[in-house]
Design brief:
Elements: H1 5-9, H2 14-22, H3 29-44, H4 51-63, H5 67-84, H6 92-100, H7 104-113, H8 123-131, H9 133-146, H10 151-168, H11 188-196
């Protein structure tokens, strides 16, 4: 019906569209079914984002410039790993390295070849010297893995956050001690949501 406001506002979910397509008698239904499944795959792996999700990634990018939030995300990810392995944290570091795409040894090797000192440095301090925005990528990946997302999904959002961090020149700040007056301004509500893994606010757009 032309100019019908109800029809203009109507939309189909991917799931409903799949059901209609697969139950139709159309000769080309297979083609459209494959297309719909590919869309669903991209949505499930954070390759198609809504406006609200993009805004949420930007907020998370700024928030995960704080070391305390990076640390909280890592601990939440570790807890999920332990829960899946009967309370056992064996192989945690090798498992996490496989998801992140780098290991501590690889970072050390890179810095040594560049002639930089590495003795007594934590992983975060080494990353700060090697590629500081990788710290934000790592935090985002840890966060979404803790939320139960798959590794492809988490890496995609981590990569996007790193890109945003570079463009926005997000400051990496260790706020675990006393926070001075010149600390970067971040949304405290988002900080609390990240630290408590609250599936509301910016994290609520991924439910």
């Amino acid at each position: 019906i032309k100019n019908n406001p109800i029809l203009d506002d109507h939309y189909l979910s991917v799931e409903l569209a799949k059901l209609i397509t697969l139950n139709s008698r159309s000769k080309v239904k297979q083609k459209y079914a494959k297309w719909l499944f590919s869309i669903e795959d991209k949505v499930e792996n954070a390759e198609l984002l809504t406006y609200d999700q993009v805004v949420a990634v930007i907020e998370l990018t700024k928030t995960l410039g704080l070391v305390s939030c990076q640390e909280a995300a890592e601990q939440q990810h570790l807890k999920v790993y332990e829960d899946r392995n009967g309370g056992n944290a064996n192989n945690w570091w090798s498992y996490r390295a496989s998801i992140l795409g780098y290991s501590l040894d690889r970072i050390k090797d890179k810095l040594q070849r560049a002639g930089m000192p590495i003795k007594g440095k934590s992983t975060r301090k080494l990353l700060m010297k090697s590629d500081k925005y990788e710290m934000i990528r790592t935090g985002v990946i840890d966060l979404f893995m803790a939320m139960g997302k798959n590794d492809r999904f988490a890496r995609n959002l981590g990569d996007l956050a790193k890109l945003f961090a570079k463009e926005l020149q997000v400051e990496i700040f260790d706020d675990r001690g006393a926070v001075p007056a010149f600390a970067p301004k971040v949304n405290q509500e988002v900080v609390n949501q990240v630290k408590k893994l609250e599936k509301s606010g910016v994290l609520g757009v991924w439910n």
